[in-house]
Amino acid sequence: MSSGVLHRAGDSPVHRLPPQVKIVAAVVAVLCVVATPREAFWAFGGYLLAITAVWFVARIPPTWFAARAVIELPFVVLALVLPFTGHGPTTDVLGVPLSVEGALAGWNILAKGTLGVLVSLTLAATTAPQDLLLGLQRLRLPSVLVTIATLMLRYADVVVAEAKRMRVARISRGDDPRFLWQLGATARGVGSLFIRSYERGERVHLAMVSRGWTGRLPDGRGSAAVEPVRVTPGAPALLVERLAFAYPDGHQALFGVDLRVEPGERVALLGPNGAGKTTLVLHLNGVLGGGQGRIEVAGLPVAKAHLREIRRRVGVVFQDPDDQLFLPTARQDVAFGPANFGLRGAELDDRVARALDAVGMAEVADRSPLHLSGGQRRRVALATVLACDPEILVLDEPSANLEPVARRELAEVLLGLERTMLMVTHDLPYALQLCPRSVLVDGGVVVADGPTRELLADTGLLARHRLELPFGFRLD
Ligand SMILES: Nc1ncnc2c1ncn2[C@@H]1O[C@H](COP(=O)(O)OP(=O)(O)OP(=O)(O)O)[C@@H](O)[C@H]1O
């Protein structure tokens, strides 16, 4: 959405029209086009004239539409085939007999298809995707449909963003997708684009599941409040015993992990790439399961019967904030989790406001998260989890891709939160700053556990597990 796939930023009377008015106008225009008899050639000319007048007012050059008209290709192909395959009387064109009925049917499809595409492109060009969703909401479309449209837009955004990244990567390696001999590479690129988009979609889904999503849309009626479950007094915040797990493809990632975290502790989870850190944390709120061993959260076993309560208690902030943010505004994204857990009305609004406030993001509440900077997005992603009021905060690489100031500001926010915290990180100074205790995982088992300063001072241990303090960093 943010990438403005189709939306062309501008400030014209057309851009300024309320989105619901534009949606209704577009639907009426398409219905008129469809209802027009195919022989009324003048009417189609009139429609085209009206559409170009809108482009003129909106200051969108026809070339912009020409470049995107490729989506019309199926209509063109069909329109070209029909004169050859149609029945009835024929007429000779350059010695080739063409079906009159087929030609008229082809024209009908081409004219109406083209006008339909142009109307849709005009709407998309002059209305930001999030405004389109707002327009649908104002038109009182069932909230279920608006949510589905939101998710579809988010997915389209994911596909376009991946496609752009892959295109840049290809072009920078000397590839030029315009040439025919690059067709093979382009085809392979499309295949891998879909796999990557699917994987991204999976991660967005995991982040949704982690915030209480059960497949039911939070439409204000569906979710019941979470029943409070009795906490075992004196139980550790987290208890993991002999946890072993293999992915469905047979790859074993965990080989018997033991971990105990007391309430209020802040623990860093360190380890080289592929050590099993993410696999471990995804077990803590039951997103991954089916392995062997025991996991308890405040004495409550992580089992199917308690998953809702477990997910309310264990908030997972994913590594990439884009996996966590998918709704039109930051406020809606932050409300997603608590709404799934049954909060409504003033209570929900209050929870959202407090979470945004806690991360210093109250002023961006009504902006699209996808238009925020990387640091702001990470804070909003944290707010989406804080709003669920979890007792345990699990953060996967919170400082990744942050500029130094944003990294420090996030550390200040995290230090101000009084919660049990488990932080997966490769950023060893960050671990030292935020977590008095560190657990080192490698090869799917815990290989060291102790005060962060002591672990980081053990250069032999770090070297054996491919960890290294940054150049110039000294442990004083
Ligand atoms: N969906 C999957 N299917 C199969 N194997 C997987 C899957 N996800 C992860 N793995 C494998 O499991 C092992 C542990 O991966 P995991 O992502 O937990 O490591 P990590 O410690 O978080 O690594 P990193 O620091 O690189 O993020 C790796 O060998 C990885 O290739």
From TrEMBL:
InterPro entries membership: AAA+_ATPase (IPR003593), ABC/ECF_trnsptr_transmembrane (IPR003339), ABC_transporter-like_ATP-bd (IPR003439), ABC_transporter-like_CS (IPR017871), ABC_transpr_CbiO/EcfA_su (IPR015856), ECF_ABC_transporter_ATP-bd (IPR050095), ECF_CbiQ (IPR012809), P-loop_NTPase (IPR027417)
Keyword Nucleotide-binding among record annotations: yes
GO cellular component: ATP-binding cassette (ABC) transporter complex
PANTHER family: ENERGY-COUPLING FACTOR TRANSPORTER ATP-BINDING PROTEIN ECFA1, HEAVY METAL TRANSPORTER
Principal localisation: membrane
Cell compartments where the protein resides: Cell membrane
Domain ABC transporter: 238-468
A single MF term (Gene Ontology): ATP binding
BP terms from Gene Ontology: cobalt ion transport
Name of a matching Pfam family: CbiQ
Protein name as annotated: ATPase
Annotated TM spans: 40-58, 65-85
The family this protein is said to belong to: Belongs to the ABC transporter superfamily.
The UniProt record lists the keyword Lipid biosynthesis: no
Organism: Saccharothrix espanaensis (strain ATCC 51144 / DSM 44229 / JCM 9112 / NBRC 15066 / NRRL 15764)
Alphabetic keyword roster: ATP-binding, Cell membrane, Membrane, Nucleotide-binding, Translocase, Transmembrane, Transmembrane helix, Transport
Membrane-topology descriptor: Multi-pass membrane protein
